[in-house]
Write a sequence for this structure.
């Protein structure tokens, strides 16, 4: 039986990359945090210090840590995989309760060796296969292999830019594999569309940032990088709370 049952209990995972977002997600009632750095880049591996402090402040909150060395594709070199394994080991010690990872081959199939390595390193903690599935050549074979190697969940937008666009594939995933793996519908999920997503996909987990642009943030006069002076997004208590209220069982 996969996580997220009974059938009428729908859960919310919120992705965060700052202490402020984490505090707001928890205050709003998030069931789990996906802990990242650099969400503007799609989410990268968080620091050990960040996870350690989150675990100390919120001892009862599940923390699933992203394992992703860099932005871009999900084809990893031997050195990158060595670093990924080191990150898993140290984040386990810091208090992670799960991980989020995905690796593909150059032809878009699941990189079985890389995925098995991370799952073995993370054991006994669960690992979610992330949106690498949305750029896989054949999502069905990729998902079936992800189940075979031991992933406990998959985060997906249905191979489209947003979960709303990918509802048909997400629903097919749920119908075919719901008894083997948790399907998390994510990307563009918010309080105004999540009720429709529940109706259309029948998933038991939804993934959102629940964020808005943070106002009145002082910016450096000189940028430290091309995206350094981009607007900052912060998870809000109200949006998380509205998502949870919409997902609550009738």
């Amino acid at each position: 039986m996969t996580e997220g049952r009974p059938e009428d209990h729908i859960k919310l995972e919120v992705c965060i990359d700052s202490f402020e977002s984490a505090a707001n997600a928890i205050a709003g009632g998030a069931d789990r945090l996906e802990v990242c750095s650099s969400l503007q880049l799609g989410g990268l591996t968080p620091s050990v210090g960040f996870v350690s402090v989150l675990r100390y402040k919120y001892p009862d909150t599940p923390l699933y840590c992203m394992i992703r060395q860099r932005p871009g594709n999900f084809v990893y070199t031997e050195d990158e995989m060595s670093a990924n394994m080191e990150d898993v080991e140290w984040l386990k010690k810091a208090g992670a309760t799960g991980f989020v990872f995905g690796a593909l081959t150059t032809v878009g199939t699941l990189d079985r060796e890389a995925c098995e390595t991370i799952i073995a390193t993370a054991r006994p903690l669960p690992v979610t296969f992330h949106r690498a599935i949305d750029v896989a050549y054949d999502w069905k074979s990729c998902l079936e292999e992800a189940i075979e190697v031991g992933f406990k969940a998959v985060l997906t937008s249905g191979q489209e830019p947003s979960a709303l666009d990918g509802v048909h594939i997400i629903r097919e995933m749920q119908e075919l594999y719901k008894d083997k793996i948790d399907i998390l519908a994510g990307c563009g999920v918010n309080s105004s569309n999540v009720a429709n997503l529940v109706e259309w996909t029948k998933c038991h987990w939804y993934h959102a940032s629940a964020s808005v642009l943070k106002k009145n943030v002082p910016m450096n006069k000189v940028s430290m990088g091309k995206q350094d002076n981009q607007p900052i997004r912060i998870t809000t208590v109200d949006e998380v709370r509205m998502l949870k209220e919409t997902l609550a069982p009738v």
User: Anything to note?
Assistant: Residues 1-7 have pLDDT under 50 and may be disordered. The longest helix spans residues 78-94. Strands lie at 11-16, 32-35, 63-66, 98-101, 127-129, 153-156, 182-186, 205-208, 211-213, 233-235. DSSP finds eight helices and ten strands in the chain.
